[in-house]
Amino acid sequence: MALSDIARKLENTINRVGTKRATEAGWHPAVTGYYGYGDADRVRVLARVLMQGDEPKTEAQRGFRQFFTVQVADIPVTITAGSQTVHARTNDNGYIDVPIRDHGLEPGWQKVSIEVEGGEPAFADVLVLERGTKYGLISDIDDTVMVTMLPRALIAAYNSWFLRTNARKAVPGMSEFYGELRQKFGQDMPVFYLSTGAWNTFPALDSFMTEHDFPRGPMLLTDWGPTPTGMFRSGQEHKKIQLRNLVIDFPDIHWILVGDDGQHDPLTYGNFVAEHPDRVTFVAIRQLTPGEHVLAHGTATPIESGTSFRPVPWIEGEDGFELIKQIPAM
Question: Where are the domains of the chain?
C-alpha cells in the first residue's frame, strides 16, 4: 500500500472520530458557502460542511485557527438554486461541488440555499454571468494581489499559521490595476481568483479582498493533504485543471491572465496561451523583487520564465502601477 493511501485512510479515520466526538460534545453540522459561478444554463455550487460548536470566532484570528476544523463526510445535503432543488452528499473531506442546470436565476450575484441533515439552513453565493459576456479576468492570489512570499516553508508557515488574518498586505497598485481593466473591458467583467491556497482560508481571503478594494469574484482554491497519487496536491495541476474548466464552461469568453514570477505562473500561463491563443486577450505578470524571490524559492531570480512563444500581448511590472502603464490598446 502506498504511503499516500495510508495517509488518506488515517485522515478519514481522524475525520470520523472527530465528527463523532464533536457530536457527543453538542456540536452540529454547519455549511460554509463559497463563491460559485455559472451562466443562464448552469451554476456550480461550492461549499463545505464542518462541525460547529458554540465558541465565538473573531475576525482577526491567528492563521492556524483556520485549519483546526472537523469536516463531515458523506452527509446528505439539499441544494436549491432558483427553480431547481437537487440532493447530494459531501465528499470525504466535507466538500460540495455540484452543478445545477436550468436554475432560472437572474444574472449577477445570487444566493443558493443549502440544507444539511442535522444543521441549520445556510446560503452560498453564485455569480451568474450575463449572456454575451466577452471578457473575463483570472488572477493568482499569493504574491500577485497579496504579499505572502509563498511557498518557502518557514515564511509560508508564518504567514499562514501565525500572522493574524487581517495583517496581510496588498501588492501596491494591483487593486487599481484591476479597476483600470474593468474600466476598459467592462465593469461587469467577471474576476476569478485561482490559487493553490487552502479552502480553510476562504473567509480571511474574502475579507482581505473587500478591505483592499479588489473586485468580488469566485475563488478556486484547493484542499491540502494526500491524494490517490501522492502525499500532497500539485498546485500546478490544480491551476491547469481550473483554467481548462473555465475555458470549457465559458467558450465565448476571452481571458486576461494575471500572475507573478515567484513560481510557476509564467510557465502555466504560457502553456495555456500556446494551447488556446484565441481565448487569451493578454497576460500580466507581477515581477517579484530579488529579495522576494529569495524568500519565495531561494534564489534571487525567477525559477521559470515561461514559454518564448507568446502570440498574445505579455506585460510585466513590479507592481500594479507599472502594469497599468502597459495595458494593451485593444
Answer: 3-128, 135-324
DSSP one-letter string for 134-167: -EEEEE--BTTTEE--TT-HHHHHIIIIISBTT-
The position carrying cell 460548536 is 53
State pLDDT tens for residues 289-315.
755 655 555 555 566 655 566 899 999
Strand partners for 317: 286
Question: Is the Cβ–Cβ distance between 307 and 283 less than 8 Å?
Answer: no
Average pLDDT, the chain: 83
pTM, rounded to two decimals: 0.84
**Domain 3-128 CATH assignment equals 2.60.40.10:** yes
* Domain with residues 135-324, CATH architecture: 3-Layer(aba) Sandwich (3.40)
Q: How many helices (H) and strands (E) does the chain have?
A: 8, 16
Helix-strand-coil split of the chain, %, nearest 5 = 30, 30, 40
What's the grid cell of residue 215?
Answer: 473586485
How far from chain centre, in Å, is Cα 269?
16
**What type of residue is 19?**
T
The residues pairing with 139 across neighbouring beta strands, listed in sequence order, are 193, 258
Between the alpha carbon of residue 177 and those of residues 88, 167, 199, 330, the distances in Å are 40, 22, 26, 16
By C-alpha distance, which of 246, 187, 252, 192 is closest to 216? 192
pLDDT digits (tens, 9 = 90+) for 200-215: 889 989 999 999 999 9
Question: Residue 326 gets which letter from DSSP?
Answer: T
Dig out the grid coordinates for 220 from the structure. 478556486
pLDDT confidence of residue 13: 56
What is the identity of the amino acid at 186?
G
Q: Whose CA is closest to 319, among 201, 171, 115, 135?
A: 171
